[in-house]
């Protein structure tokens, strides 16, 4: 009997995961559409994606990443 309960629980978990994966794909498609719309109005989507990544970061981590980028740019002579 314990095996049946475990099998049923497993099936339910798998079904939930499958449903969430489908929803995730739908959301990813929606995000893609928004980027395409933004590109169509003249926005640079690479820059937008970089901004989205930066906004996900905590302020201290973002400042550290920007400082490191500035250091590397300076070292390579990319700063005027």
From TrEMBL:
<protein>
    <recommendedName>
        <fullName>UPF0335 protein F3168_09785</fullName>
    </recommendedName>
</protein>
<dbReference type="InterPro" id="IPR046367">
    <property type="entry name" value="GapR-like_DNA-bd"/>
</dbReference>
<dbReference type="InterPro" id="IPR018753">
    <property type="entry name" value="GapR-like"/>
</dbReference>
<dbReference type="GO" id="GO:0003677">
    <property type="term" value="F:DNA binding"/>
</dbReference>
<feature type="domain" description="GapR-like DNA-binding">
    <location>
        <begin position="7"/>
        <end position="77"/>
    </location>
</feature>
<comment type="similarity">
    <text>Belongs to the UPF0335 family.</text>
</comment>
<dbReference type="Pfam" id="PF10073">
    <property type="entry name" value="GapR_DNA-bd"/>
</dbReference>
């Amino acid at each position: 009997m314990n095996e049946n309960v475990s099998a049923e629980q497993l099936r339910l978990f798998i079904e939930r995961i499958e449903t969430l994966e489908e929803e995730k794909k739908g959301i990813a498609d929606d995000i893609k559409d928004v980027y395409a719309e933004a590109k169509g109005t003249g926005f640079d989507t690479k820059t937008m994606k970089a901004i989205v990544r930066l906004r996900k970061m905590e302020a201290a981590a973002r400042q550290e990443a920007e400082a490191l980028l500035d250091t590397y740019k300076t070292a390579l002579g990319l700063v005027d």
